Amino acid sequence: AHIYNYSFCPNPHWPSYYATASSIHHYLKDTAVKYDCEQYFKYGHKVTSAVWDEEVGETPKWPKIRGMDRFKGQLVHSALWDETVEVAGKNVAIIGIGSSGVQILPELTFSSDPKSLLAHRRALTNERNAGFRASGGGRFPQSATQEACRKSMESRLQVETSEKGRIIAKRLIPKFSVGCRRVTPSKDFLETLLDDRVECVFLDPQSNQAGGSPGTSIKTFTGRGIMLSHSASEEEEEEREFDVVVCATGYEASYIPSFELVGRDGVRLAERWSGCHRDGGTNPECYLGTTVSGFPNYFMFLGPNSPVANGGLVQAIQAQGMYIYKCVRKMQTQGVRCMEVQRSVMDEYNEHAQAYLRGSMWTEGCQSWYKRVGEGGEDRVIGIYPGSAFHFVEMMRHPRWEDYDFGYGYPGMVGSRNGPSIRQNRFVFMGNGFTRREAMGKSIGGTCVETFEEYWDLMELPGIHS
């Protein structure tokens, strides 16, 4: 749970080792209240569009199964969870065994020492970030890690004493590298699968595809539940009755905003990033997971190729927030009307990212939203940053202003006989020659002492450019 802390706001009151969605939400809300941030929020509002003027979101991924509208019970999705749903004493089906299903199944089946807290948080963050190196940075063999995970799963599934556990282990323990798909920790998911009240039905992923081999598949929803098909013959169909069906089938990871976003020359981001996994389409690309060429003044969190599986995620979000703040501050204090990452810079960055990720474990033969097939037919990783989370934080620490094009001046900054005009001189922000401190009449008698402490870590790294 402590991995979800912001560095500036530690929380010693997490109710459990693994943080639940509600406890994370409670922490974020408390943080917003503590720092008086809610005054800047707009509740009950919906962004309909954002269009660049030269002069002046996660969507649930529902399974594609026929007859969903015929089901008379309660149908919910993990992304839009209905807190009013009661499952006690009911027959419940969960479709999906990814990160959402892992967290949902166990739930449905069943301050005083700040120094110590800081040490604990540092240890957890170090362990989380070190995991990226332990996995070979995604590029090197990790046989020891795979073996350790396999033994742990077999032990928790009791394969030596449980026939059910052996069957589940055979179908559930993957052959691909640890991290090829999102790794989701859970203290009791595997144990819950062994519960007598839980039945595992493994579907053949090929059986629902044209020309796929016969196997167990979900044929359709019925008014009372789900119709399973165990072969190509209708004689092998079986109806299962359920009161509640939970679709833990993930999210649409296209990165396309839920609102219309229009940049220069009327270009729509949805059109540039159109397409979905494994159908070709335009690859979603951006710069440092934060901004896109052609869309001035547009910044985002966790865009394409962000460190979502490279270490601590919250520290990466915090680093992006500080980066965006520095950009906005530059615009406010230096008369910058617009800033936009150069297209050549964005292209080079993505060229480097794909060169790093090519041949990594994220291109192995697992189904994952981290990747899609590129125009040349090769896997293109769109969901992973080319480095560790700590590496990302360091990259975001100091914006590379040379990577941006800037437009200067605002309407009305310089008047004329014909009304307000835009003056492009980038030094207009120097104003009347006096600082804000002087204008406010504050003391200017002090001397700024430069300690140069921030420069002591400059060093030459031998062979770094070889």
Automatic annotation (TrEMBL):
Superkingdom of source: Eukaryota
Q: What is this protein called?
A: Podospora anserina S mat+ genomic DNA chromosome 6, supercontig 4
Q: Fetch the InterPro entries from UniProt.
A: FAD-bind_Monooxygenase_sf (IPR051209), FAD/NAD-bd_sf (IPR036188)
The family database entries (SUPFAM superfamilies) matched by this protein are listed as: FAD/NAD(P)-binding domain
Q: What family classification does the UniProt entry report for this protein?
A: Belongs to the FAD-binding monooxygenase family.
